[in-house]
């Protein structure tokens, strides 16, 4: 295979591996929130155990991306694609870390029944999971239009986070015995909000990859 064909084959393999890593991150988010709502310690432990594989994938994708840049010296669009891959893999790894933090809340609180049904946190999780999925889809399809929609959804996530924060603060004031639980749930909501920010970051890099323009979607 000639060098250019080999380069594009390697680039395609990188993109597919980034997609696989993204799928693992989506599953980690889903399982961490399910473990929370069902107070399932075993599922929370599974999230923690799965983080090692995500970390290994991050290192592998980063290493291969840097090797391609160093050895092939890609130009213009290909260089932006590799740069976006390096940025996206970092955002995905951080999302997984936030998912692990949610699982740790489960392990701390699983023996205490929730003082009220969890409604808005699962809604928030559904939104950020879809944002992650669409950010990766936009990356694979080089779809800047889809990437730009992440900004609107991030605003919805931020609004839900503010609502959850106010609701939990009111609970802490009215029910002092629920303070610790409310604080832990605030941490969960904060981690989900940050996952949404990282998904939006991927959207920004997709726009750069496609159009060569840096756009701040987290405003």
From TrEMBL:
Any one of the GO BP annotations: intracellular phosphate ion homeostasis
Domain of life where this protein originates: Bacteria
InterPro entries on file:
PhoU, PhoU-like_sf, PhoU_dom
Task: Quote the subunit structure annotation.
Answer: Homodimer.
Record-given protein name: Phosphate-specific transport system accessory protein PhoU
User: Which Pfam families would you find in this protein's record?
Assistant: PhoU
Recorded family membership: Belongs to the PhoU family.
Any one of the GO CC terms: cytoplasm
Q: Which SUPFAM superfamilies match?
A: PhoU-like
- According to the entry, every stretch annotated as the PhoU domain falls at 18-106, 121-206
Q: Where in the cell is it found?
A: Cytoplasm
- Cytoplasm as a keyword of this entry, yes or no, is yes
Going by the UniProt record, its keywords in alphabetical order are: Cytoplasm, Phosphate transport, Transport
* Role of this protein: Plays a role in the regulation of phosphate uptake.
